[in-house]
Amino acid sequence: MMRPPIVGVVGGGTASPEVYAFAVALGGLLARGGALVLCGGRSGVMEGAARGAREAGGRTIGILPMREGESRGNPYLDCEIYTGLGDARNYVNAQTSDALIALEGEAGTLSEIALAVKLRVPVVYLRSWRFLHDQPAFRESYAETPEEAVETAFRRIGYRPGASFDQPLRYPLLQDQSRQREELEAFLKSERRVQGPTRKSAQEKDG
């Protein structure tokens, strides 16, 4: 399937100004490199990454834990996938991403990292999870800057910015997720984009 690479950005639902700025920068760099930005669809790091991608002219995917109608994702999502899986949607995030970039977060983020490692999805750590840096398997995956993180992620999946990416969609074939997979496949084939955020983000509301 010819498509852009999907790079997941994971991190806390609340973020310091520095970490939020890193997420925005990551989203912009990924979008300008031709990648689709995937996130958990909510606030904090997830919102920052989607915002950065949208502002750079890219497209974004939010994998949401709730069912449609229960709540809404952040205002920077082009494709909202309502899984109804709760915390189990972390598996969908990890499986669907061709590479994962991890910022600061808590247990949920750590679970996404663990799932990605188990699924052999390349993970890059951006100034976060330093205890993993001491493990041999992770030493080449640590980045100090958003630029380094994006470069490492692209290199590890064999992608050159602007080039085509011929890989099957990795969205998991779960019994109750066939409609969601079809929605994502349709999005990948389209050029549809939501023009600008329709709602104020939590970060903007807080100033």
**What's the arrangement of strands in the largest beta sheet?**
5-4-3-2-6-7-8
Q: Which structural class do the helices and strands define?
A: alpha/beta
Mean pLDDT figure: 89
Low-confidence stretches: 202-207
Note the total helix count: 8
Walkthrough of the structure:
The protein is of the alpha/beta class and 207 residues long. Helices cover 38% and strands 15% of the residues. It has 8 helices and 9 strands. A 7-stranded parallel sheet has the order 5-4-3-2-6-7-8, sandwiched between helices. It has a two-stranded antiparallel ribbon with strand order 1-9. The protein is globular.
Q: Which tags fit this structure?
A:
8 helices, 207 residues, seven-stranded parallel sheet, single chain
Quick overview of this protein structure:
The protein has helices at 17-32, 45-55, 89-96, 107-118, 130-133, 146-156, 178-189, 202-205; strands at 2-3, 6-10, 36-39, 60-64, 79-82, 99-102, 123-126, 142-143, 165-166. With 207 residues, the protein is an alpha/beta fold.
Topology:
Blueprint: E1 2-3, E2 6-10, H1 17-32, E3 36-39, H2 45-55, E4 60-64, E5 79-82, H3 89-96, E6 99-102, H4 107-118, E7 123-126, H5 130-133, E8 142-143, H6 146-156, E9 165-166, H7 178-189, H8 202-205
Parallel strand pairs: 2-3, 2-6, 3-4, 4-5, 6-7, 7-8
Antiparallel strand pairs: 1-9
